[in-house]
Design a protein that fits this description.
One of its GO terms (biological process) is regulation of nitrogen utilization. InterPro entries: AAA+_ATPase (IPR003593), AAA_lid_NorR (IPR058031), CheY-like_superfamily (IPR011006), Homeodomain-like_sf (IPR009057), HTH_Fis (IPR002197), P-loop_NTPase (IPR027417), Sig_transdc_resp-reg_receiver (IPR001789), Sigma_54_int (IPR002078). It holds the Pfam family Sigma54_activat. Helix content is 44%, strand content 12%. The chain has 482 residues and is of the alpha/beta class. It has 4 domains: 118 residues, 3-Layer(aba) Sandwich (Rossmann fold), CATH 3.40.50; 157 residues, Rossmann fold; 72 residues, Helicase, Ruva Protein, domain 3; 60 residues, Homeodomain-like (Arc Repressor Mutant, subunit A), CATH 1.10.10.60. A hairpin with a 2-residue loop joins strand 4 and strand 5. The longest helix has 20 residues. The radius of gyration is 25 Å and the shape is globular. The two termini are 30 Å apart.
């Protein structure tokens, strides 16, 4: 692809210089500009093979001209860059027909890879709809690197019907992600129907999912539609899929394989058209080993895995999340409140075992109970209860491994109170530690499995088996040192 022309629009001279040098060394002809006007003139004259543009520039917003560009030159791939780094920025870029969205700061190696793919691949058609960004009504909040990866994955999934499996601890916002996939996707005009497997008696789950005919069982005095029928044309969110009984798993597998189901007590197959999004906080690979979850169903559901990080892994998002919850409280007639900088720092030192849900509950409680406009450090200290030292670190950042294990075990035992959890606690913890360990080492080895196996002290086949069983994604890249 060397020799092709790249149009580069960014008002930051340093970014233009760095990209110009890197792209020129790769053999491309680069035409840089710091304004939209010049970029638009180039595009209208038919110049350039690809456009790389920042969103906000002194003379306008790239999103405002992208529909004109796509109409005039639908074949021209556009790579959008932005330092705003919100969920809606990624979605807006996708809706405007961008080939790729790159949050700033970016990896030069990734830019080169994106440009190479864009020039080599067939151009994507531009979606015909747009959604105005409303910062105060953001469906997902956070600008951390962990959330950027999720935003980009979601943006790519919006115009597909691929089945998605969302994993993450309780309170991380799995249903919010499922709703975002629906509300900004191709099925947004259809219904969004959610069912929590853990909240329904096990012997009623099949009837809840697939409906039942009159007389199908004692108490079935009339025909009743199920969640699949209610979600027709839209999205069905299967929350806590790990709690689904085996009989229901078998029926669900048939739906995924054949696109049809029968009601409980019924004989006629019913065609269905729904997008399935599943979620769980449990380790499905462990349940498979225990014979509690079908392996074939797991692979049918786990087409696109999305892992939501616990809040302790995205601690930089605490200020944005807290501000969002305070705004929500204000919209519900609470007086305007802000958190002091010291209070926010303390909140970033807390490990949040209840994740985003715990943070939201705290902020809403602070907004309702305290009259001062500025919520002080002392108030937050009192509410977080500093006697519980185990949930604080000496500095902001991820929790140490001992704290993570203790927190995970505590939540597991709370979940099954007053009984004990099922057998396999040891393997559950081992699996929880293995995933970030293997992922991190693979990343440090730039995706090279041979080097990663050597560094871990594992046989290459053992490492490959663990990668497959955990569904670990391998991203090959040039490692940045610094």
């Amino acid at each position: 692809m060397a020799g092709q022309t790249i149009l580069l629009a960014d008002d930051d001279a340093a970014i233009r210089m760095v990209l110009n040098q890197a792209l020129s060394r790769a053999g491309y002809e680069v035409r840089p500009t710091g304004n939209i006007s010049t970029m638009w003139n180039w595009v209208t004259r038919g110049e350039g093979d690809i456009l790389i543009t920042d969103v906000s520039m002194p003379d306008g917003n790239a999103f405002d001209v992208m529909p004109k560009i796509k109409k005039l030159r639908p074949e021209l791939p556009i790579v959008v860059m932005s330092a705003q780094n919100t969920f809606m920025t990624a979605i807006r870029a996708s809706e405007m027909g961008a080939y790729e969205y790159l949050p700033k700061p970016f990896d030069i190696t990734e830019v080169l890879a994106v440009v190479g793919r864009a020039l080599a691949e067939a151009k994507r058609p531009a979606p015909d709809r747009r959604q105005e960004e409303q910062a105060e009504n953001m469906p997902l909040v956070g600008r951390s690197a962990a959330m950027q990866d999720i935003y980009r994955a979601l943006a790519r999934l919006m115009q597909t019907d691929l089945t998605v499996m969302i994993t993450g601890e309780s309170g991380t916002g799995k249903e919010l992600v499922a709703k975002a996939l629906h509300n900004f996707g191709k099925r947004k005009n259809g219904p969004f129907v959610a069912i929590n497997m853990a909240a329904i008696p096990r012997d009623l789950i099949e009837a809840e999912l697939f409906g039942h005919e009159k007389g199908a069982f004692t108490g079935a005095t009339s025909r009743s539609s199920g969640r699949f029928e209610q979600a027709e044309g839209g999205t069905l969110f299967l929350d806590e899929i790990g709690d689904m009984p085996m009989d229901a798993q078998t029926r669900l597998l048939r739906v995924l394989q054949e696109g049809e189901y029968t009601m409980v007590g019924g004989r006629t197959a019913i065609k269905t058209d729904v997008r399935i999004v599943a979620a769980t906080h449990r380790d499905l690979s462990q349940l498979i080993r225990q014979g509690l979850f079908r392996e074939d169903l797991y692979y049918r559901l786990n087409v696109v895995p999305i892992r939501l990080p616990p809040l302790r892994e995205r601690i930089d998002d605490v200020p944005d999340l807290a501000a969002s919850f305070l705004k929500a409280a204000q919209r519900e007639n609470e007086a305007p409140k802000v958190l002091s900088s010291d209070a926010l720092k303390l909140m970033q030192q807390y490990h949040w075992p209840g994740n985003v849900r715990e943070l939201e509950n705290l902020v809403r409680r602070l907004a309702a109970l305290y009259v001062d406009e500025v919520i002080s450090l002392e108030i937050v200290q009192n509410e977080l209860n500093l006697a519980d030292r185990g949930n604080f670190s000496s500095k902001p950042g991820p929790a140490d491994i001992v704290t993570v294990i203790e927190s995970d075990l505590a939540e597991l035992f709370r979940e099954y109170e007053p009984n004990l959890p099922p057998a396999g606690v040891y393997q559950r913890i081992i699996d929880r530690v293995e995933v970030p360990l293997i992922s991190t080492v693979l990343n440090l080895c730039a995706g090279n499995q041979i080097k990663a196996a050597e560094l871990l002290g594992l046989n290459r086949n053992t490492l490959r088996k663990k990668i497959r069983s955990h569904g670990i994604e391998i991203v090959k890249h040039s490692r940045q040192l610094g």
